[in-house]
Amino acid sequence: MQIKRGDQIINLVDQPLAVGDALPNVELLNQDRQAVQLGDYINGVSVISIVPDINTKTCSIQTSRFNQLAKEKDYPIITLSNNQPEDIVNWCSSNDVDMVYLSDLNGQFSEASGLLMAEYDKLARTVMLVDADGIIRYIEIVADMRDEPDYDKVLEAADKLK
User: Fold this and answer.
1) What is the pLDDT of residues 17-55, one digit of tens each?
2) Which candidate in 29, 59, 70, 145 is catalytic?
3) Of 25, 92, 100, 104, which sees the most CB atoms within 10 A?
């Protein structure tokens, strides 16, 4: 699969996850650098917001927006990236954000999800909705990395699953 950043073509290294697939229960790092299982954070209908790099404008906007939505909705919103846990802690602190944010520093999710961008060695901007059983019910792999995901569509899908 290919996505882009402006005129640049970006290749995903493998076939990405799709609706109906099980969310891979891989090991990630929490903000304290502790190894955790992704599946431990799925509690009913859950939104997973994937950003390439929290220290960029669009990723920051996406994460802030989902943090705001997490306060308004009654389902978990998990943010995931390849950033160092320290980057995550610093971003959350400077943006007054308290949320579930996991690091795929070891690349297990990148490999299992097919969402790794070959040209950047980072996860592609993606939003997933998973049900209580960890099955993907909605996924948007953003076509241009400069764009934000369609927040309304994922929230509409989440509300239908509730």
Assistant:
1) 999 999 999 999 998 999 999 999 998 999 999 999 999
2) 59
3) 104
Domain 12-161 fold: Glutaredoxin (3.40.30)
3-state secondary structure the chain: CEEEECCEEEEECCCCCCCCCECCCCEEECCCCCEEEHHHHCCCCEEEEECCCCCCHHHHHHHHHHHHHHHHCCCCEEEEECCCHHHHHHHHHHCCCCCEEEECCCCHHHHHHCCEECCCCEECCEEEEECCCCEEEEEEECCECCCCCCHHHHHHHHHHHC
In this prediction, residue 139 carries a pLDDT of 98
Quick check: 12 pLDDT over 90? yes
Q: Residue with structure tokens 């320290």? A: 86
pTM over 0.90: yes
| Average pLDDT of the chain to the nearest whole number | 93
Give the residue from 91, 109, 112 showing the smallest Cα distance to 101.
91
59 catalytic residue (yes or no): yes
